[in-house]
Amino acid sequence: MHELRDRDSILEIEKASIDHLTPLSLLSRYYGITPSGFLVAEIDGLVVGYVVGIIGTIRWKGEGYILAIAVDPSYRKKGIGTVLMTNIINRLKSRGAKRVYLEVKASNSAAQYFYSKLGFKEIGVEKGHYPDGEDALVMRRLPGE
Length: 145
Ligand SMILES: CC(C)(COP(=O)(O)OP(=O)(O)OC[C@H]1O[C@@H](n2cnc3c(N)ncnc32)[C@H](O)[C@@H]1OP(=O)(O)O)[C@@H](O)C(=O)NCCC(=O)NCCS
What we know:
Largest sheet: 7 strands, mixed
Radius of gyration: 14 Å
Shape: globular
CATH architecture: 3-Layer(aba) Sandwich
Number of helices: 4
Bound molecules: coenzyme A
Low-confidence stretches: none
Mean pLDDT: 88
Number of domains: 1
CATH topology: Aminopeptidase
CATH class: Alpha Beta
Structural class: alpha+beta
Order of helices and strands: EHHEEEHEHEE
Distance between the termini: 23 Å
Number of strands: 7
Helix content: 25-40%
């Protein structure tokens, strides 16, 4: 697990998962602000997954957000997503996050199950949140969950 160094290598993973993700082209703006919020998982020198998390400031102090996570389709269901999430949550916590939030497409039941295993609970719905009009479920993880 290390911080993002090779942006191109994760674009391929994004392409395979783009239906569900905020584009890296957009997220890369955050990279200039908080490079420590970008983590990649590597196996034998190959980047197989990434996660992006940020921490709020001023009135959002104490709130962490997961902006994107994706694992290469051929490496899924091997625990890599869990390792990425655990690492980013710990990192956000160490930087002061008391709660961690994320949004997930209402139709992405695989990711919802994945997040619930990590202690996230659904706390609301954002109607028509995504550009295609789909609703987002808002999920939150409280300390100790
Ligand atoms: C969601 C995602 C990151 C999970 O990564 P992963 O490396 O496969 O996750 P893990 O192997 O750590 O899985 C953890 C748990 O979630 C379950 N899980 C993961 N993907 C699943 C799927 N497609 N269907 C059902 N369960 C799934 C695993 O079985 C495991 O549960 P278990 O311990 O009961 O077996 C990955 O499927 C992905 O990249 N999806 C496309 C992008 C995406 O949807 N991102 C989320 C946007 S909000």
